[in-house]
Amino acid sequence: MSDRKIIIAVPHGFCAGVSRAIETVEKVLEKYPSETVYVLHEVVHNQHVVDDLRKKGVVFTDCLADIPENSIAVFSAHGVSADVEELARVRRLRVYDATCPIVDRVHRKVRRLAGLGEEVVMIGHAGHQEVAGTLGQYHSEEGGIYLVVNHHDIENLKVKNPEKLSFVTQTTLSVDETAGTIRELQARFPGIQGPGLNDICYATQNRQRAVKDLSKKADVVLVVGSRNSSNSNRLREVAEHEGTKAFLINDYTELLPEMIRGCRVIGITGGASAPEYLLKDLVRELRNFGYEDIEELGVSSEKQKFRLPGDLE
C-alpha cells in the first residue's frame, strides 16, 4: 500500500444557509417555468454553483435597476441593504429573499440598535456583499455605523458616545483573528457591548476547527472554493496560521504538481459554498498522483436546516 494519504476534514462543503439559498433559486425556477428569474449578485460565492444555475436560465446581475419592473428577483445569501429592499418595492419586484438566516439575525440586531440611537461598529472586510448589506441596515440621518478591518481602523475610530456603542461581525470571519479584534475594541472602548463570537456562523466555526485539526496531520491543505468566497479564504488562512502550507483552488483543474511535491499527507476541505462533487473530483485527481489511502478527520454534527422563504415550502 502507498504511504501517501489523503485526509478529508469533516465537516466541509455546503452549510445550511448555502443549501437554503440554492434551493430557493431552484424552487423559484420550478414555480415560474415560463418567466425569467433574476438573482441580485451571486447567490453564493462559488463559480460552479453560479454557472450551473445560469445554464438553467437564471440571470445574474449586480444592479437592481437592471431587473425589469414586476419581475421575479432573488436576493443572495449575503443579504442586501435597506435601500435595495426599498428600491425593490418601488419597482414592484416579486422578491424571494435568500439571505442566510444567520446574516438576517445580524441585520435585525443592527436595525434594533439604530432604533435605540446606539452607534455600531462592524468587524468585517470592506467591499464584501454581506458587509455592504449589513452596513446598509443602519438608518440614521447622522450616521452611526463604522466598519473596522484591522488594528489601524480601531486606533483611528472616532465615535460620538463610547457609552452607547455596540459591535457586530461579518459571519464568515476568522474566529481567532476576530477574537483579537474584539479584545482591541474592548480595550479602546471599555463600555462597548457585543455578542462575543456569536455572530460568526456556526458552520464557519466548525470548518475552521476542523482545518486546525487537519493542519496538525497534513503536509499541505487544499481548500476547494472560489476566490471571492470569504469563508474559503479564511480556511486557507487558518491552515497557514497553524504552520501548514495551504492553497485555495476552484476545482481539481487548478491543482499543480508543485503544490503537493514532497508531501506524504494531503489534507483537503471545502468552503461552505463548495459543492461536494468538487471534493470528490479532487480526490480522484490526487489518486493519479499515487494518493490511495483516504480517511476522514472529524465528525459532522450539523443538522440545521432553514425554512425556505415565502411560499416555496
3D architecture notes:
It is a single chain. The protein is α/β, with parallel strands linked by helices. Helix content is 37%, strand content 18%. It has 11 helices and 12 strands. The strands form 3 sheets. It has a 5-stranded parallel sheet. The chain has a 4-stranded parallel sheet with strand order 3-2-4-5, covered by helices on one side. The chain is flat.
Unreliable spans: none
Structural class: alpha/beta
Count the DSSP helices: 11
Question: Mind telling me the C-alpha Rg?
Answer: 21 Å
What is the CA-CA span between the terminal residues? 49 Å
Average pLDDT number? 96
The strand order across the widest sheet is: 10-9-11-1-12
As for the CATH topology of the largest domain, it is Cobalt-precorrin-4 Transmethylase, domain 1
> How helix-rich are the residues, as a percent range?
25-40%
CATH architectural arrangement of the largest domain:
3-Layer(aba) Sandwich
